[in-house]
């Protein structure tokens, strides 16, 4: 059945698909020979699609993880929606994707709810939900445990609301990365509320590449529960890899990708490391501005006290453990 479904493009309107059983991908990457290896199940240009049911989608991705690791080997996104407006996805279980589990691209008005997404903590690049060039997206009341970002919000995205998501293991809920290769990229109006991070590498994260331009603005994280998560609050404008570092001749390239109007409020719980708040911003382009941190109580899940570090971060804080005295006015 999976072979018949693989890479069929459905172009229609007001389609309802109810998944009651299982869709299982071939376990051997050689089954993709002669096909586009970047995708498995894909819906394109469907207006008013509803995909629901108690069934599951199993990417059987372990062979791909071993084959590709973290290199540039092309492997499938398990379930992708392109230019699919007024989309609803509810109740599905999604396992062991070869790469991203769900990708939303070029879409307007999407609701993903009551999803269960799972892959091993060691599975590389297995984002739960990956969003790009889309607006008016809601992710509600879902459990996401993967080897990468639970949710990644990429360039061209706006009015994204994430509510009641439990994340972990994984790399947290991330805005970015933005600005790779010097690109102009933007994200705005992202609002994360009532989410829980359990044993994640990061919690609330904003990351931009060195040398990029654009902006990330009007972003809020509110009422967040932390359970032994690393980097509960982190902004970094120095995201990089070996290729970028080589191109920059080992220098630190600051950027014009501004980060502004960011709010972190109502965080409580424990950090797996003493570093609870990291605001690492560029010395050029004004750094990060308009940061607000309030009603934060992050303690260590091990020994010692938590602390905050800042570079070129401008804003205010109130009622915060740890204190964020390093903020600039």
3D structure, described in words:
The structure is a single chain. The protein is mostly beta strands. Helix content is 5%, strand content 51%. The strands form 2 sheets. It has an 18-stranded parallel β-sheet that branches. A 10-stranded parallel β-sheet has the order 3-6-9-12-15-18-21-23-25-27, with no helix packed on it. The longest helix is centred in the first third of the chain and has 7 residues, at 62-68. The relative contact order is 0.08. Residues 1-7 and 242-251 have low confidence and may be disordered.
| Average pLDDT metric | 92
Shape: globular
By helix and strand content, what is the structural category?
mainly beta
Helix content: under 10%
CATH class: Mainly Beta
Could you tell me how far the N terminus lies from the C terminus, measured between alpha carbons in angstroms?
60 Å
SS elements, strand count: 28
Q: State the low-pLDDT regions, or none.
A: 1-7, 242-251
Number of helices: 3
What is the CATH superfamily? Answer: Single-stranded right-handed beta-helix, Pectin lyase-like
CATH architecture: 3 Solenoid
Do you know the CATH topology? Pectate Lyase C-like
Q: Biggest sheet, in brief?
A: 18 strands, parallel
The fraction of residues in strands falls at: over 45%
Rg is 20 Å
Any idea how many domains? 1
Pfam families: Glyco_hydro_28
Keywords: Cell wall, Cell wall biogenesis/degradation, Glycosidase, Hydrolase, Secreted
GO molecular function, one term: polygalacturonase activity
Subcellular location: Secreted, Cell wall
């Amino acid at each position: 059945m999976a072979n018949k479904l693989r890479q069929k493009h459905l172009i229609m309107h007001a389609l309802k698909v109810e998944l009651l059983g299982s869709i299982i991908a071939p376990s051997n990457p050689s089954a993709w020979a002669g096909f586009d290896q970047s995708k498995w199940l894909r819906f394109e240009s469907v207006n008013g699609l509803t995909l629901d049911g108690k069934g599951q989608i199993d990417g059987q991705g372990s062979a791909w993880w071993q084959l590709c690791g973290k290199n540039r080997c092309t492997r499938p996104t398990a379930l992708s929606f392109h230019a699919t407006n007024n989309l609803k996805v509810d109740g599905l279980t999604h396992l062991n994707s070869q790469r991203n589990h769900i990708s939303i691209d070029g879409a307007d008005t999407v609701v993903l709810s009551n999803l269960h997404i799972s892959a091993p903590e060691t599975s590389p690049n297995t984002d739960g939900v990956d969003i790009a060039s889309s607006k008016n997206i809601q992710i509600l009341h879902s459990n996401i445990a993967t080897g990468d970002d639970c949710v990644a919000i990429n360039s061209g995205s706006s009015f994204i609301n994430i509510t009641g998501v439990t994340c972990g293991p994984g790399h947290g809920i991330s805005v970015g990365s933005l600005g790779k290769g010097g690109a102009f990229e933007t994200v705005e109006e992202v609002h994360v509320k009532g989410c829980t991070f359990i044993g994640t590498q990061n919690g609330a994260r904003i990351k931009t590449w060195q040398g990029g331009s654009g902006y990330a603005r009007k972003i809020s994280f509110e009422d967040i529960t932390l359970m032994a998560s690393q980097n509960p609050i982190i902004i970094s404008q120095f995201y990089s890899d070996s290729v970028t570092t080589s191109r920059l001749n080992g220098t630190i390239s600051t950027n014009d990708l501004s980060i502004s109007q960011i709010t972190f409020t109502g965080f409580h719980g424990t950090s797996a490391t003493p570093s609870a708040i990291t605001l690492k911003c560029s010395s050029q382009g004004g750094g990060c501005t308009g940061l607000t941190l309030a009603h934060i109580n992050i303690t260590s899940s091990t020994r010692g006290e938590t602390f905050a570090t800042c570079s070129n971060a401008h804003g205010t804080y109130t009622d915060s453990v740890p204190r964020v005295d390093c903020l600039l006015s």
